[in-house]
Design a protein that fits this description.
Layout: H1 6-35, H2 41-48, H3 52-55, H4 61-80, H5 87-124, H6 128-187
Helix pairs in contact: 1-2, 1-4
Length: 189
């Protein structure tokens, strides 16, 4: 008979641990429903003493969502029976919602920090050769743009000089034309 491998033992232990935690979550949902307490992911995680990640996992989330739907139907049934939630109950709901909101914000901040660090690691692991190649490409591109700019500047200067020469020539042609017209007008009786 072969002894199980360490990996198999660890997987079996994790499966048992996962099953135990999921059972605690289901029990916590039942207790919250029986007590008439509001059912939220954070409240279930606290009651079951598990991480909030677990209560959002597939196979667990569905139980909580179903319990929340059943809980939402309860006030409607109580209203029909003439019962209304007390002010203390509403304040408790508000406090729980605020707690859950705080936890969600903390989770969001934790995820942002994790993402920021992961992006930093990804940037650090980029191959230096790729960066060197990209720098060379950008340097060549910059040189081409600089050369194009110098040519455009030289062309612009040449065109300005040509425009100045043409303007001078046009002015001289106009002056000459005026003289010819004046001289011709003087010759006519």
């Amino acid at each position: 008979m072969n002894a199980p491998e360490p990996g198999q033992v660890l997987r079996a232990a994790r499966r048992r641990d996962s099953a135990t935690k999921r059972a605690r979550v289901r029990d916590a949902i039942a207790e919250l429903e029986q007590a008439g307490d509001p059912i939220s992911f954070a409240a279930v995680a606290r009651a079951a003493q598990v991480s909030t990640w677990l209560v959002y996992a597939d196979g667990v989330r569905e139980h909580i969502t179903a319990a929340q739907q059943r809980h939402q139907l309860r006030p409607e049934q109580e209203r029909r029976a003439g019962l209304r939630p007390s002010e203390a109950s509403l304040r408790t709901d508000l406090a729980l919602a605020r707690d859950e909101l705080g936890e969600l914000r903390a989770d969001r901040d934790q995820l942002r920090e994790h993402l920021r660090r992961q992006l930093g690691r990804d940037l650090d692991t980029l191959a230096t050769a790729d960066l060197h190649t990209r720098v060379e490409e950008l340097t060549h591109h910059n040189q081409r743009i600089t050369d194009d700019l110098a040519r455009a500047y030289a062309d612009n200067q040449a065109l300005r000089a040509r425009v100045t020469a043409l303007e001078t020539e046009l002015g001289a042609s106009r002056t000459s034309l005026r003289r010819m017209i004046r001289d011709q007008n003087l010759e006519q009786p």
